[in-house]
Design goal:
Blueprint: E1 5-12, E2 20-26, E3 31-35, H1 40-45, H2 62-83, E4 91-95, H3 101-107, E5 112-116, H4 120-130, E6 138-139, E7 150-156, H5 165-175, E8 176-187, H6 192-197, E9 211-212, H7 215-223, E10 227-234, H8 237-251, H9 256-273, E11 278-285
Parallel strand pairs: 4-5, 4-7, 5-6, 7-8
Antiparallel strand pairs: 1-2, 2-3, 3-9, 8-11, 10-11
Organism: Lutibacter litoralis
EC number: 2.1.1.222, 2.1.1.64
Keywords: Methyltransferase, Transferase
Length: 286
């Protein structure tokens, strides 16, 4: 992506390294890029943290426990969403499937599921959840899938993590059936909580998040592959969870009341602007 870029913010990696990374604004796509972007083994190092909740089923701190409670509710809402799609065979690929909770609930509801998860420990947990009666393949990376075609592909807070973004989107297109549906959930750097917390906004999560999207960016990126955004849906819980982490980064304290206030204000403002903390994009092939 060789579009014109300009400095936007500098952020600290609060999870692993305490290193500073820059965010560059891509003028053409209306999105941010993390700079520099670690690659290969260096990038893997930034995921080696006990605080990286999506790779474990840990429930140690209050924040972790809150995350798990909301996750259980969100799983049912996600299942309800994909069950609303008219599909031919109910085939599902969940990319970045983590410890496999979404795969398991979909499989138990009649979906033929496969997953992609690069983290070895998370992958083992996922396999233990979905391989009880028959084998549901869980791959290390998307390039291991070649001839398969899916009715639905889901990426729950995954697209912001992938290197080689445009190539990756092309691969997603190739894995979808002609009338298939792509479900992409990503943080929105134009939300009120992002603008309020600025460099402390937890959803910047540098350098694990390589890209930071606006609604315009998602629409343009997928339009390049002849796909179109049909619906945008809010993830209203995200503003509260992200604000709680952001308060900790900003003040070194988990100020629940302040985080709740900012999260609520973000959702109220988004009722008019539609700029929620995170958005789900329902993207149709063709």
């Amino acid at each position: 992506m060789n579009s014109k870029k300009r400095p936007y913010l500098s952020c600290i990696d609060y999870t692993v390294s305490n290193k500073k990374f820059d965010l560059l604004y891509n003028v053409e796509y209306d999105m941010l890029e993390t700079f520099p972007q670690p690659e290969g083994d260096e990038l893997d190092m930034y995921y080696e943290s006990l605080d990286y909740i999506s790779h474990t089923d840990a429930k140690k701190s209050i924040v972790d426990k809150l995350y798990q409670i909301v996750k259980r509710y969100a799983l049912n809402k996600k299942l309800e969403l994909i069950n609303s799609f008219k599909t031919s065979e109910k085939t599902l690929l969940d990319i970045g499937c983590g410890t496999g909770d979404f795969l398991a609930i979909c499989k138990n509801n009649g979906w033929k599921v496969e997953g992609v998860e690069p983290n070895k420990n998370a992958r083992k947990l996922a396999e233990s959840k979905v391989n009880k009666n028959d084998v549901a393949a869980i791959f290390t990376n998307i390039n291991e899938l070649e001839s398969e075609k899916f009715d639905v592909i889901t990426l729950w807070h995954v697209l912001e993590h992938v290197p080689n973004l445009e190539t990756y989107i092309s691969k997603l297109k190739s894995l979808l059936k002609p009338k298939g549906v792509l479900v992409v959930a990503v943080p929105n750097f134009k939300s009120y909580d992002a603008l309020y917390y600025k460099q402390f906004w937890a959803a910047f999560d540098v350098p694990r998040h390589l890209w930071h999207f606006s609604k315009t960016a998602i629409q343009k990126l997928f339009k390049n592959e002849h796909m179109h955004v049909e619906i945008m849906l809010p993830m209203k819980f995200d503003s509260f969870y992200v604000s709680l982490l952001s308060e900790k980064y900003k003040t070194s304290n988990s100020n629940f009341l302040k985080a709740f206030y900012v999260g609520l204000k973000s959702n109220l403002k988004a009722m008019a602007s539609k700029e929620y903390s995170s958005l789900i994009y329902i993207i149709k092939n063709g």
